[in-house]
Amino acid sequence: MILVELKKINQIVDIFTDSTAGIFNALESIASDESFEWLENSEYLDIMYYSSHSGEKYASRFYLTMLEHEKTIVDIAHIVFTKFSDKWKRVYDAMMMEYNPINNYDMQEKEKVNSKITSTIDVDNKTHGFGSITAAPTDEGKSTTTTEGSKDDNVRELTRSGNIGVTTSAQLLAGELEVRKNLFIEEVMKDIDSIMCLKIY
Fold first, then answer.
1. Bridge partners, 135 (sequence order)
2. Are residues 98 and 114 in the same domain?
3. Does the model's pTM come out above 0.85?
4. Rounded CA gap, 57 and 129, in Å?
5. What CA–CA distance (Å, rounded) separates 167 from 102?
6. Could you say which residues of the chain have pLDDT below 50?
7. Total structural domains in the chain?
8. DSSP states of 143-194 as a string?
């Protein structure tokens, strides 16, 4: 039976001695899509990951094997990125979708405006002679009305957007977004743990 020496993550990487040795720094170096802009804070994410989230967890056999074969943290990051990048992209894009803290007022309305419709009707007034059941045309009383345009001319569409001075809703959304980002980062760290850390419960 071969005994494997267990090592904690912090025994392998000292993020405070080498700020480029962390997994988030390596992920930032290989990610280019705007959906991974959250990796711009990779230095702080590494500090969070190694100092308070996973530093005291034991490294997985996979992680130790990669190191035994002289693979770097960038090699490990490529594997992590290949496995989880699509998931992270979808979740992050959904989280950021349609969020605009400046524009808290957006309304569309339709207004009916009777401004262009006229109509043309030719009316020939006819008169009846005394004791006659048949009407005879007469020029007197003839009227003409002209129609132009259509019913579509009566509809005006208005779109209003902007900030109506009520910032409370925007502040609430910003707070909600920050909560979502923290939950997102927590899920990312759990995904990384599934590759780099030993599952000991």
1. 128
2. no
3. no
4. 112
5. 8
6. 1, 201
7. 2
8. EEE--BS-GGGGEEEEEEEE--S--HHHHHHHHHHHHHHHHHHHHHHHHHHH
